[in-house]
């Protein structure tokens, strides 16, 4: 590899306070990046991107307001950053060597980048039989969120009736399996018939429904939870949460993992 690479990257061109972000807001460009030794500062690494995780919390970083958010905004013209798995090409930090595979908690969405080694969460041993994508999924933040929601906050018992929204998402597929391991009856909601099939056939859910084809959430919850809901892992908020509140049992627990149905709405604080 030469000292200069042609680098393709995604950057923020304009903030998007409400609605679905488009190519007006997120833009693609090709730039030249020097990875020559004297272009890499002390305690920095030149890395090649292997995998990136695109998660719902990133929506909050595109709004252009800091109010009410737990994470900072991307800067305009900045390459957006996400959790990623990268491979070291050149190192200016004695802790890391060329070829090391690393988990970067602030990986630029670019083919190559020069990053501070303080952004590295851990080294990954690629020889132990765990796929690299699992470090961003079940062993990453989505798996951790599912574990906190079910094991730490939900605390379901054998036979508990557990409901999980956004069941086919990164959190939902892990949460459903954790609840099944605890011996629960697990029902999920998701946005298409294919995804309902997926959660039942691949991810161990007992049953599920397509919320886009249910005009009456109250009726759907009555049908799927004749004995009420003991644990609701809420990933969507909004109308589904409102409906669930009418079906929870005494001492039910509602771990609030996220409210994705609200993320494109204008935030008034
Ligand atoms: N990923 C993480 O690391 C993490 C960590 C903490 C909290 N969370 C929260 O957990 C929730 C799920 O995250 P995830 O990473 O599992 O998401 P994901 O894999 O990106 O999947 C998100 C899913 O949410 C569903 N969705 C989108 N808009 C919706 C709406 N208006 N109403 C209902 N469902 C909608 C869509 O599936 P359908 O086809 O089913 O609509 C979509 O595929 C989010 O609220 C997120 O903020 C995520």
Oligomer: single chain
**Any idea of the CATH class of the largest domain?**
Alpha Beta
Mean pLDDT: 96
Let me know the number of strands.
12
Write down the overall geometry.
elongated
Query: Largest beta sheet: what is the strand line-up?
Result: 6-3-4-5-7
- What ligand species are in this complex? NADP nicotinamide-adenine-dinucleotide phosphate
Total domains, how many?
Answer: 2
Helix percentage range: 10-25%
User: What structural category do the secondary elements indicate?
Assistant: alpha/beta
CATH fold annotation of the largest domain: Quinone Oxidoreductase, Chain A, domain 1
What would you report as the Rg, rounded to the nearest angstrom? 21 Å
InterPro entries: ADH-like_C, ADH_N_2, GroES-like_sf, MDR_fam, NAD(P)-bd_dom_sf
Protein name: 2-alkenal reductase (NADP(+)-dependent)-like isoform X2
Organism: Cicer arietinum (Chickpea)
Keywords: Oxidoreductase
List the helices and strands and how they pair.
Blueprint (H helix, E strand, L loop, with lengths): L3 E9 L13 E9 L9 E10 L27 E11 L9 E8 L3 E5 L3 E5 L16 H14 L6 E4 L5 H12 L3 E6 L2 H9 L5 E4 L6 H8 L4 E5 L4 H7 L3 E6 L16
Parallel strand pairs: 8-9, 8-11, 9-10, 11-12
Antiparallel strand pairs: 1-2, 3-4, 3-6, 4-5, 5-7
